[in-house]
Quinoprotein glucose dehydrogenase (Lutimaribacter pacificus), 704 residues
Amino acid sequence: MLPRLITLCLMAIACAAGPAMAQDDTTSPSEPDSPTAPEAPAPTPDEGATGPGNGDIPTPAERAAADVPAQAGEDWPYYGGGAHATRYSPLDQIDRDNVGGLERAFVFRTGDMPEGTAEGKYSPETTPIKVGDDLLLCSAMNVLISIDAASGEENWRFDPGVPNEAIPYGASCRGVSTYSNPDAAEDDPCATKVIQGTLDAKLVAVDLETGTPCEDFGENGTVDLWQDIGERVPGWYAVTAPPAVVRGVIVTGAQVKDGEAEDAPSGVIRGYDAVSGELVWAWDMAAPEQNRNGPPEGEVYTRGTPNMWTAAVADEELGHVYLPMGNSSVDYYGSNRSEEENEYATALVALDAMTGTVAWHFQTVRNDVWDYDLGSQATLLEYEGTPAILLPSKQGDLYILDRETGEPLTPVGELSGLPKGDVEPEYISDTQPVSEWHTLRKEDLEEKDAWGFTPLDQLWCRIQFRRANYQGFYTPPSSDRPWIQYPGYNGGSDWGSVAVDIERGLIVANYNDIPNYNRLITREEADERNLRPIYEEETGSSSGENAEGAGSPQVGAPYGIDVNAGWRNPVTGVPCIEPPYGGIRAIDLATGETVWDTPLGTARRNGPFGIPSMLPFKIGTPNNGGAVVTAGGLVFIGAATDNLFRAIDIETGETLWSDVLPAGGQANPITYEADGRQYVMIAATGHHFMETPIGDYLIAYALP
């Protein structure tokens, strides 16, 4: 499932928020200049997990661990910085004392802008990687591009020809991966290859030096991920996240568009040989033994199982790959789910990357009917001397687990006495896990929290609060009347994940703090509204429309679903709760205590009725995209809907510098060094769900 992106216009009148709205006085006073154009032991598996499918599957001994950088350095070689995905850089040329002097070093434009049926459907979310002298990236429609890291000049590009009809909720390509073949000579074609997954469900590999497709990989550089999935329905099955590469195995999942039908494409996870592109293994949670090497002839991978739409992280030495799993294809009804779905949905699953067998799993929601997918890439770190993994969730909980066993290293509690509802009370879990170490989640809502731009708006929202079912956290779905889901499906941490300053021992997490206002739709009402699943619609016709779940049929379940993402007033477009709607927080890694917490985002691009107020007051807007932290004591982040790119003091939370972007900055930034100079880069490409302007800009900053 792809990231849950709230489409919000926000109020922006300073007096409405009162004195708590501190002015963000570091904002650039004007819009930007016009840019220039272009061998570990095998882990003990879960009970019931199977071993290798046959003798052809490489063993861990045959896949020696490579020497990979745990953290970024001069390069930014992984989507998450280094192999451990901490989004931390040891570079300190830019620091708290001189960051105010940052200037644009260059601006590169991809040239990929929406045309025709792609209009209104772009959400690129692109994070480049830097390897040697080159920046490597994918555009919204999977155009692979290499540019010089110091000058921004284009080296090459490769367009795999992804059609508009393949766009699911939005055209997104968060990043690419690389693989260097240890058995290849340096000047061999594709000795190092650049690998991406595409919206039309392909793995594409090209030569890092030339951009030429790797002929020996799959079929002329392409592996078809629709193989054994079932009937091709464009937009239903797509890849938006960079694959993980561990010990020469490329591991990928895919996004399955939610809300369509229980009989949806499989959420199978597959591992492919990084040299040949051949299938090494498949993990089909409902048929792990039968389908380990692909399903029997004439059959497909198990339909409707939970998928991994976000980025995995791998432990090269241990040989594990860690999968943040989503929910089942029908999010808001669960009584028809299998035992395997109930076991692995919304769980972090550790697989042996050589065999695809389950080592362990840790579930964050039991019997999830709230669309609380695990959207964040997990982070590898050391915790009290133990190799550990940090897992953020959409509910706001942060867990630290033993990397080898999955055992919690920080306290995990149990919520009990939870509401059961009237729709499927026997299915709703009696208990839910909760982090007792740290959570971004705020207190439950009360009627007094209902809010509006005027007293009349506030009254309307209070009436809606009384109309709804709401019994606090984990209020289950209802059909007789709406229910309030808080946090909403974009609460807590989403695909931007968190950043960890490993030297200072600080976690930096940006988050959303906003509810959804939902209602289950009876099958009769869904039919009356002509809600049709994607396979019955004109190809590509519904891609990119509405927030996820806003009028989805959920065929095969008794109910469809309507989601008001952000619980917006239909007249003003303003959420029915008081700002801030999002923030950023620093957390002490040793204690789990909050060091500082501040709203993220100003009112300058937001206002009632969708009218920008241009007021530079900090209100805290919805935000998607994560942060980068540096040894220079800085947090760099875009994410918010005010189109600002910020540098924040990691010790205090104070904004020290900002620049106005020409389009939305809903992407994870990076920092790297080229020719002895430190650069910071962000993709200003906008986001249609976040209602920020669409662009094709990659902007690099450096000191004069």
